[in-house]
Known about the structure:
With 250 residues, this protein is an alpha/beta fold. Helix content is 14%, strand content 22%. It has helices spanning 53-65, 85-88, 127-134, 167-176; strands at residues 16-22, 39-42, 70-73, 95-96, 100-104, 107-112, 143-146, 180-183, 191-195, 198-202, 217-222, 244-245. A six-stranded mixed beta sheet has the order 4-3-2-1-11-12, with no helix packed on it. Strands 5-6-7-8-10-9 form a six-stranded mixed beta sheet, with no helix packed on it. Helix 3 packs parallel to helix 4.
Amino acid sequence: MHIRISPNVRSCPGDCINVVLMGDTHEYHRDVGVPDGDLLIYVGDITRRSFSSRAVEDFDEWLGQLPHRWKVVIPGNHDYGFADPSWQNLITNAILLINDGVELLGLKIWGTPITQVDHGFFGGETAADREGQFKRIPTDTDLLISHGPPYGILDREYNSKNPQGCRELLDAVHRVKPRLHAFGHIHGGYGVAQVGRTSFVNAAVAGCHGKPEKNPLLLCIPLRLSSEESGFKSTRVKSTSDVLADVCSS
C-alpha cells in the first residue's frame, strides 16, 4: 500500500524551521506524500540497485517540483552509482553530500552515505575505513545525516531483535553529539528516539517489501539554543499517521 496522505504543516515559531526527513523510496518517490517545510533532508536509497541513471534524473526532476526552499540529499548503499561523478552531476535541485558538509541558516550539516554493506563505494569498506571517514565529521556539526543507523538506535528490522547499526558511527555520534542524527536503511527502525542531547530519526519510508508504506517525518528545529539546552523534546512515532514530531518548545 502506498500512502499519499501528508500530515498538515504546523507553523514553527520564528526562530525555528520545519525540517522534512525521508528516504529509502527505491524509485517510488512519486508515490510518497511529502509535507511542506523549509528544509527537506533525504537520507539515501533513491534507486533499487543503481541499474539506470534515468531513475536519478526522475528523482532530481521530482525534487525540483517540491516547494522546500532548501534540499539536502545523500546516497544510500543501493545508490552506488553515485561513486561516479557523472551521477553526482545529475542532482541539480538539491545539495548532494558525500562525506562532506554544508552550512544553512547557521546550521552545520554533515552527510555520509557510508554503511557496512556498501562494498566500499563511498570509502568505508572496513571498520578502520569507516572510523577514518567518520573522524572527519566536525565536532560542531548540528545535523548529522547518514544512510545507516548507529549501533543500537532504531536499527532493528521487522521481527528482529538483532541490532544492525554501525559501531564506528555510534562512536562518532558520541564524539560529535549532534543535535539531530537522521538516517534510514533499516526499514523496520522507522521512528524517533531521544538519547541525551541528540534526537535520532529513522526516516525510512519503505516497508518490509521495499515500497513506501510510511510518511516522511516533520520536525520543528530551533535555529538558536542556549548553552544548557538541546532544544528538543523526547518524541515517539505511534503510527504512520502520527508523523508530526514537534520537538521545538512552543
